[in-house]
């Protein structure tokens, strides 16, 4: 069996087309241009490229986007002040502070400083709480993207056994929570695995859906996968450098072997990654509609 490929590139393209039309309509009918500001502290190359990709995507969709790059020595107090400035700027609907922050800045304090109505990353405790309660809120972008991928590729989640590997605040915990809720791409029976899990392979072998968000290359091997399971690979691991200097990436799943057993599978790259930025754009458009009282 060769699994159907769930292409994040294709699904993200579909959603971006929908968003482009939505942004154009907001402008035409309501004179609204959604606004996003990204704040980067320091010069970490990976963070720089993530922020650049976010701004490029925003521009392509017609979203107004500003990129602020701050000195690595910027104090927590100054960063809180800057966030406060954008909280009060009506042109800005979404504020994204790129993580990780330098060690001298307390991340939790910064996330708390963002107006929950502009928290398009969905990391503010108010949005996390609402998510857990199943209330309307900004969903964190990677889990939100996974839900869209499952829905749009027709993977049945209701009643499914879902095994998630990894319990981070940005992927594992929220996706586990969302998939057990009574909602689209929900109603699943969820098992969350981590480093203290005994016999993870046994959990995986009974899963209808495996979501791997670990950061260990090719950790999910073919012998851990039930025939016909759906596989979502969140992992992005740099496993070498190509002759052109570009990083060679691998997911958390042994793609070549697992695709012979699974019914569908996301590739790395080109799977969950493109969905994450797209859902940030969706949240920004949602924030603009909320600010205008349209939703
Ligand atoms: P994280 O914060 O580093 O958490 C990793 C989780 O995996 C932890 O809960 C850890 O367990 C668990 N884990 C690590 N090794 C394990 C093992 N051998 N067996 C079982 N569990 C193990 O990671 P993250 O931020 O969620 O990211 C995970 C991966 O997804 C990374 O490769 C990251 O680059 C990628 N990612 C991709 C996107 C995207 O848009 N494509 C977005 C976010 C993350 P403990 O809690 O017990 O330590």
Description:
With 295 residues, the protein is α/β, with parallel strands linked by helices. It folds into two domains: 31-117, 3-Layer(aba) Sandwich (Rossmann fold), CATH 3.40.50; 141-273, NAD(P)-binding Rossmann-like Domain (Rossmann fold), CATH 3.40.50. The protein has ten helices and eleven strands. It has helices spanning 8-30, 45-61, 76-87, 107-113, 125-133, 141-152, 172-180, 200-205, 255-258, 272-291, and strands at residues 4-5, 35-41, 64-70, 94-97, 161-165, 189-193, 209-212, 230-233, 237-241, 247-250, 264-265. The strands form three sheets. The protein has a six-stranded parallel sheet. A three-stranded parallel sheet has the order 3-2-4, sandwiched between helices. It has a two-stranded antiparallel sheet with strand order 9-10. α2 (45-61) links the parallel β2 and β3. α1 (8-30) runs parallel beside α10 (272-291), α2 crosses α10 (272-291) and α6 (141-152) packs across α10. The longest helix has 23 residues, at 8-30. The chain is globular and about 55 Å long. The N and C termini lie far apart (45 Å). The model has no long low-confidence stretch (mean pLDDT 97). The structure holds NADP nicotinamide-adenine-dinucleotide phosphate. NADP nicotinamide-adenine-dinucleotide phosphate is lined by residues 142, 165-168, 170-172, 193-196, 200, 213-216, 234-237, 272-273, 276.
Layout of secondary structure:
Layout: E1 4-5, H1 8-30, E2 35-41, H2 45-61, E3 64-70, H3 76-87, E4 94-97, H4 107-113, H5 125-133, H6 141-152, E5 161-165, H7 172-180, E6 189-193, H8 200-205, E7 209-212, E8 230-233, E9 237-241, E10 247-250, H9 255-258, E11 264-265, H10 272-291
Parallel strand pairs: 1-11, 2-3, 2-4, 5-6, 5-7, 7-8, 8-11
Antiparallel strand pairs: 9-10
Helix pairs in contact: 1-10, 2-10, 6-7, 6-10
